[in-house]
Amino acid sequence: MAAWNASFTSFSLPFNKILSPRKPMAALGFSSSFSPRIHPPSSASPSLSIKPKRPNNPFQVRSVAATVEDVAGFDEMVSGTQRKYYMLGGKGGVGKTSCAASLAVKFANNGHPTLVVSTDPAHSLSDSFAQDLTGGMLVPVEGPDFPLFALEINPEKTKEEFRDSAKNNGGTGVKDFMDGMGLGMLAEQLGELKLGELLDTPPPGLDEAIAISKVMQFLESPQYSMFTRIVFDTAPTGHTLRLLSLPDFLDASIGKILKLRQKIASATSAIKSAFGQGETPQNAADKLERLRERMVKVRDLFRDTDSTEFVIVTTPTVMAISESSRLHASLKKENVPVRRLIVNQILPPSASDCKFCAVKRKDQMRALDMIQNDPELSSLNKHSKGKIQGQS
Ligand SMILES: Nc1ncnc2c1ncn2[C@@H]1O[C@H](COP(=O)(O)OP(=O)(O)OP(=O)(O)O)[C@@H](O)[C@H]1O
User: Fold this and answer.
1) Ligand 1 pocket: which of 16, 98, 231 to mutate (most atoms <8 Å of CB)?
2) Ligand 1 site residues, Cβ closer than 6 angstroms
């Protein structure tokens, strides 16, 4: 069974039982019969463009076995009606999406109108819920007692928005134009900003950073105010790390672009008219300014211990644990609040003579020891009142 702790979380999942990726709640033993403690307004329902439920959806959360009333630590996650953000991160394939989907169902079944957001281009969240969530719209997830909506943001699409805005505000096309006008000094400044490079070969993680800022934009609108729990199914570790450091970079870059745009605008009306084709310079600048503001909000949100928690998901393998350790170190460096670690896919003791299972489980137990002795991860464990499930 799953065991949670306020500071260290361990899911022990019966890997030898075939777990359908379409039923992550069952995988994590999350209950649908948990009594709701928080009562949202009965009329709560976003009026945004909502995709209709897919007919004959095979996924039924209500069918999930009720087993985890004793899950420790979840009370803390579920308590309070103020909005909280949970960001799940970890190595590729450890189960971030499955855990995000499960956590979201758990929140919804405990009375929280919940939104689960994915910026993962692989659309695994759609697979987890067996519903088509693509299209950047809120999709109601069937099953939980209280509203649960999912939103998949296409990072490619949102990146285009940024590219367009930035291009309108001093991209390579403008540089060429200015060169042609003999405005060498301003052109040089543009060169220094390496805008062409930024736009043509965006740094890894830019897509996710922009996608998350897009989610922030949504969340500010009144239609989204009902959500008290927001669960992010984040991108794999490397991307996530870069994403976390990106807002600073973007803030600086966009700020420079904006300043430069002002200079350009006052330098010559000829350039103004060049900008005037399509989007007006003021509109484009406003759009960029809003993007910059949202990026700053994302950056601040990542560091806000009251409302945000970054949950590391790992598996009991040497590689995953090593990577989780590095992830925790980097998150600490970035002042991102981390309190919990989910150890997914722990084999239960085997009742059969399966030698493979026995060897595998022994490896897993060794890996769990590694967590306890890891200077980064044991600090998450320090406040633990329990022990890792299955460990002797
Ligand atoms: N406890 C589990 N038991 C069995 N299968 C699991 C378990 N957790 C996850 N899986 C399976 O492992 C695969 C990867 O899971 P998932 O997509 O949740 O990981 P992820 O970390 O989000 O992956 P990615 O990094 O590629 O986005 C899926 O097929 C999922 O069904």
Assistant:
1) 98
2) 13, 15, 19, 21, 27, 92-98, 120, 122, 124, 236, 344-345
Residue with tokens 């695994």: 124
Length of the chain, in residues: 392
- Taking residue 287's Cβ as centre, other Cβ atoms within 10 Å add up to 18
Residue 50's CB: how many other CB atoms inside 10 A?
Answer: 14
Q: Output the DSSP codes for 267-332.
A: H-HHHHHHHTSSS-HHHHHHHHHHHHHHHHHHHHHHT-TTTEEEEEEE-SSHHHHHHHHHHHHHHH
> Measuring CA to CA, how many Å separate 319 from each of 308, 368, 370?
27, 12, 11
Q: In this structure, are 283 and 366 located in the same domain?
A: no
**What's the domain count of the chain?**
2
- Whole-model pTM over 0.90: no
Q: What's the token pair of residue 206?
A: 């830019």
Distance CA 95, CA 101 (A): 10
* Cα 96 to averaged position of ligand 1 atoms, centre (Å): 7
Question: Which residue range is the domain that position 58 belongs to?
Answer: 9-154+213-235+303-381
- The answer to whether residues 26 and 150 belong to one domain is yes
- The answer to whether 300 touches 216, Cβ cutoff 8 Å, is no
Give, rounded to a whole angstrom, the gap between the first and last alpha carbons of the chain: 16
- Please check whether residues 133 and 199 belong to one and the same domain: no
Measured in Å, residue 229 CA sits from the centre of ligand 1 at: 22
Q: Whose CA is nearest to atom 16 of ligand 1?
A: 95
**Residue 379 CB neighbour total at 10 angstroms:** 14
What is the per-residue pLDDT across 59-109, written as a single tens digit (0 to 9) for each? 332 222 223 333 446 788 899 999 999 989 888 889 999 999 999 999 999
- One domain for residues 130 and 47: yes
Pocket probe for ligand 1: among 59, 124, 152, 232, the residue whose CB has the most ligand atoms within 8 Å is 124
Is 120 an annotated catalytic residue?
yes
ipTM for the predicted complex? 0.98
Instruction: Dump pLDDT digits (tens) for 162-197.
Output: 556 555 544 444 445 444 444 444 445 444 444 445
Report the C-alpha gap between 243 and 300 in whole angstroms. Answer: 13
